[in-house]
Amino acid sequence: MTNKNQSDSATGVDPTAVPGVELDISQCNVLLADDNAQNLELLLAYLEDLGCEVRTAQDGQEALDQIAQRRPDLLLLDVMMPRVSGFQVCSRIKRDPATSDIPVVMVTALNEVSDVERAVEMGADDFLTKPVNRLELLTKVRTLLRVSLLQRQLKKTIAELRRLNPGTPG
Fold this sequence. Notes:
single chain, alpha/beta, five-stranded parallel β-sheet, 5 helices, 5 strands, about 40% helix, about 15% strand, disordered N terminus
């Protein structure tokens, strides 16, 4: 018996595909922020097969600077970083209306329930604990990139509907 949440490699059918909507994550860009070069290298290797652009930042301030220059479709964020922590980065981007809808995955060695609660309070969309499991990482990244693309498509559709029918409230 096959799991319906797994891709059917025999048919090439993606069970998470949305009928009538093309979701090409190869056009997305992901920002990884971690102060540990080995962690960045490992995450880059894990994400290589996605086919999308992956950028890196070596601390929280660099991540904020990169986000200001070019908005990522997804942010993978280490919690414990110098200058600006992952919690602080997450909180700042979630408070800013221009960046609040960027999906954030906190990646941390911390495994206390209070740390997870704090990540959620700061606005994190998901979290991974180190050492990161490759399959779990790829699954979460693909899912959140698809959500990001769907949000973008929804905004375009709403803007087009407003353009076609300017008297519509909302």
